[in-house]
Amino acid sequence: MIAPFGIRLRSLMNKRGALCVGIDPHASLLSAWGLDDDARGLERFAMTCVEALAGQVAVLKPQSAFFERHGSAGVAVLERVVREAREAGALVITDAKRGDIGSTMTAYAQAYLDQSSPLATDALTVNPYLGYESLRPALDLAAAQRCGIFVLGLTSNPEAGQVQHAVGPQGGSVAAAIVAGVSADNAGCPDLGDVGLVVGATIGSAVTDLGIDLAASHAPLLAPGIGAQGAGAGELAKVFGAAVRNVLPSSSREVLGAGPSVTALQDAADRTLDACRAVLGEP
């Protein structure tokens, strides 16, 4: 039986470095690579990323929407990306941000987390803003399948505070309630749990202002915005504090913009990892 997701993630972060590279086939990136904006161009782009990076970085994160927009042919490419990236040794977080209730949430979970599914992945991003417990079918199936879940916690989009900073009937913020749910699901984990949080590296003092203890959650912290995207050592100390060791920086365009050369993509990933190590204080 494979180890739980959190254990596998920590092991790869230690071995390959703490970096997640997003595979985001924007139409503009396809064009920049000299590719047509169709399923064939998508496949060439995505599989070049897998060839270059799946044996090098700890985590790859395909954004499902950019595959889905090409219909069934695009979803078939996503299936291949996830399968071949995992075979090459990377962990895969499918960035689909699914969120629903009851049998529909169960179906989403089965699609991405049941390891007999064609879309089976190592971890899935989910949206908890129908209430944290609405995620229970995905949380339970992930635990049974030894997969991970990344819950949107404190995101950096300008509109996020309207919901995430809002105060609930018990007096705490919505974001604090989400983190409390994650903490409960990770209870007893000595290191990284299997339930992670998405926390933007550019959110400033929001974590402290809302009285949230990220370190106590034992959550892997998927953090867009580090390094070339603008967040340096000072910002990280303010956002993550004692939880900084659990941060998994996520970068897309800084790496993908170097394509289509495989070697150039690998070099860009190395540079991004070095930048992340510098701001995270890693050796």
TrEMBL record:
GO terms for molecular function: orotidine-5'-phosphate decarboxylase activity. Keywords: Decarboxylase, Lyase, Pyrimidine biosynthesis. Pathway: Pyrimidine metabolism; UMP biosynthesis via de novo pathway; UMP from orotate: step 2/2. Transmembrane segments: none annotated. Its EC number is 4.1.1.23. Residues 18-268 form the Orotidine 5'-phosphate decarboxylase domain. InterPro entries: Aldolase_TIM (IPR013785), OMPdecase_AS (IPR018089), OMPdecase_type-2 (IPR011995), OMPdeCOase_dom (IPR001754), RibuloseP-bd_barrel (IPR011060). It catalyses: orotidine 5'-phosphate + H(+) = UMP + CO2. It is an enzyme of class 4 (lyase). SMART domains: OMPdecase. Belongs to the OMP decarboxylase family. Type 2 subfamily. NCBIfam families: pyrF_sub2. This is Orotidine 5'-phosphate decarboxylase. It comes from Angustibacter luteus.
